[in-house]
Amino acid sequence: MEYSNQRKELKVSAIENGTVIDHIPANSVFRATRILRLDKMENQVLVGTYLDSKKYGKKGIIKVSNTFFKDDEINKIALVAPSATLIVIRDFKVVEKKQVEIPKKIEKIVKCVNPNCITNHENIPTKFDVMKNENGIYLTCLYCDKNTSKENMVFL
Amino acid sequence: MKNRSLLSINDFSLDEQLKILTLAAEFEKNPTQKILEGFVVATLFFEPSTRTKLSFENAASRLGAKVIGFSSLATSSVTKGESLKDTILTVSNYADIIVIRHPNDGSARFAAEISPIPVINAGDGANQHPTQTLLDMYSILKTQGRLDNLNITFVGDLKYGRTVHSLTIALTQFNTTFHLVSPVELKLPSYVKRHIKEKQLSYFQYTDLLDGIPQADIIYMTRIQRERFSDPIEYEKVKNAYNLNNSMLINTKENMRILHPLPRVNEIALDVDNNPKAYYFQQALNGVFVRQALLAAILGVK
Lengths: 156, 302
Description:
The complex is a heterodimer.
Chain A: H1 2-11, E1 18-25, H2 29-35, E2 45-53, E3 57-65, H3 71-74, E4 85-90, E5 93-99, E6 105-107, E7 110-111, E8 127-133, E9 136-141, E10 147-149, E11 154-155
Antiparallel strand pairs in A: 1-3, 1-4, 2-3, 4-5, 6-8, 7-11, 8-9, 9-10
Chain B: H1 14-29, E1 40-45, H2 50-62, E2 66-70, H3 84-91, E3 97-102, H4 107-114, E4 119-124, H5 130-144, E5 151-155, H6 162-171, E6 177-181, H7 190-198, E7 203-206, E8 218-221, H8 232-239, E9 257-259, H9 280-298
Parallel strand pairs in B: 1-2, 1-3, 3-4, 5-6, 5-8, 6-7, 8-9
């Protein structure tokens, strides 16, 4: 167990200060980087995909140097990675570790599935209530009231 | 209700909805009173809807308000590429209340979000048309003397008809029994049925129009549109199955009345028009009184 952990660290090297987002579903890593706008980031970002995980089989991991996210920022990735763990690193040490939480509302990051929704016709940021049913998370548009299911989520 | 926007029927509580119906009855007795003198009502119709626009403008002018606005894109700055936001912010400089009809779902709620003056939704795409719901409720109350414990039969396109959805949801507040007559392809969507189930009310679904008639206190007819069918043969099969004619009304209840949001095509035969149970033209007139009540309540004079 120790050994496998060390090997993973070798695959995505450790950071001195910053944020590690672990246990991301392997196929959602790049979506998560887009949601967090890491493509625009001018800090070191290390990304690993399809790493072996005891718990999940395959997982992804993101490490961002010198960046500490606010809760409402980081919780946005719960839409694609509800199982993700947030780890705050200072001086190579873990100072905080917690699960992401599914936010109650989200703005701007997902497109409304309804082609007739006003947000798809005018330059208007989307707004949704995050809902949950037996099939998982879905979003209810605050403008047109239509539901966007997980499979239909298109990230802006 | 002063200064509040009306975007969906749920924006007003049951008490407030009933208050509007009471006010509408007052205006029906005395429809011309200059209580809105000095007020300006803007009617912004981004898609044509002559019926609704005339009804609002009639309501406003009978109360002495001035009406400004446009009735099609051709006469507005939208053809120059102006955004909805800019149109709303500009118009709100010139008016005390905005009435908006727009082809996109959610447009009215967006307008209300940015507008400093209250907004009434006169239909946003396939989404909401709350003033139609209130005038339907008023018509039911007026013809039946009550809203509680009625048998309401909806006929036609129950899948896409937004007036049916809103009215059904509104009627779940009144212990209604629902009779739903439609082709299988156009059944009431499950999200609307969920409202009925949540209130533990009864509903019955039929494909044969005659099954929905004898028990009805209200028969609410709707138009079946050709464009709803991917297969034109299916349309041909159902289009004549839901036509109400006079001979079908023989065994109906004495108090039964026929409603229709209009425009009608052929789903109600012309021979029904002279039957005292036909109520759809009075129903349209009721829209004026309900809209008077809304304008007066939201502008704070009643």
